[in-house]
Amino acid sequence: MSVRVNAQELKCEIQINSAQLENIDRVLIDNMRQAIFEFVNGRRWTNDKFKDNERIECSMLINLKSISNNSEFTAEIQIQSRRPVYGSAYNTTIFSFRDENA
Fold it and tell me: pTM of the entire structure?
């Protein structure tokens, strides 16, 4: 069985919540957010060319739960994508995913 998958470029907002972690280095969290942002938004997922307004809008919330001595995190992640509703000024959710054990 084969499945055809179509890809499109992303325009994703990345948020990282580290409120549950004590004495966490903000620079580490900011660098993590920036690296994820650049990977998701800067990567070409297709060979097609898309204008900025043609990218799929999405948001990713990473809720950091704990960190080990060697900087390994346990986290919860929520990902949602949305698209404009034809003929309107608002968006509708087209995909929503939550992983409590990321």
Answer: 0.81
